[in-house]
Amino acid sequence: MIRAYAQVNAAGEILARRDREEETVPPPAALAAHKPRWLPIVAEDPPPVTPGAEVREGPAEVVDLEAGVVRLAYSVRESTPEEVAELRAAKVAAIKAEATRRILALMPEHDQRNSLALGMEMATTYGPDPAGWPAEMRARYEADLAIWTEIKAIRARSDQLEAALPEDPAELWAVDPLVGWDD
Predict the structure, then answer these.
(1) Are 173 and 90 contacting, i.e. CB atoms less than 8 angstroms apart?
(2) E strand residue ranges, the chain
(3) FRET partner for 2 with CA separation of 20 to 30 A, picked from 47, 53, 148, 164?
(4) What is the pLDDT at residue 35?
């Protein structure tokens, strides 16, 4: 059977790594204490982490001469303030992306530009008061204003969801940016 091995010197330093047939590896007891030996590399199960609040690092190679193995060990540490800030920025970006998706579903960008152009054209041609515009143009403008009202509500909800993001990293991790829009 082929396994991963690390060649280790008497000081516990790894000299080389290689996949080897188990039968070709001399048993450690057969070697003089000062001779390098091949020890099997054994992977440990990664420890659980609290997403957002903790980070798993590794695996690190830990030589255990007494047990005759090299362990691939993991460690867990608290998230740094920078990592929490990155997580918060990612959640904010996801909320903004959902707001953008909803806005564009109501009124694609080309329709937004056309609406602005219509308002500008009517204001410069007929004056700023829509009451003086042709009925057909006024109807289009009013329909667009109704959509703009919905768009402003989406923007306001996006701001609320961003402001409501929790400070606790574990709670922040659990936030689903697709939830809370229709409350």
Answers:
(1) no
(2) 2-8, 14-21, 37-43, 54-64, 69-78
(3) 47
(4) 82
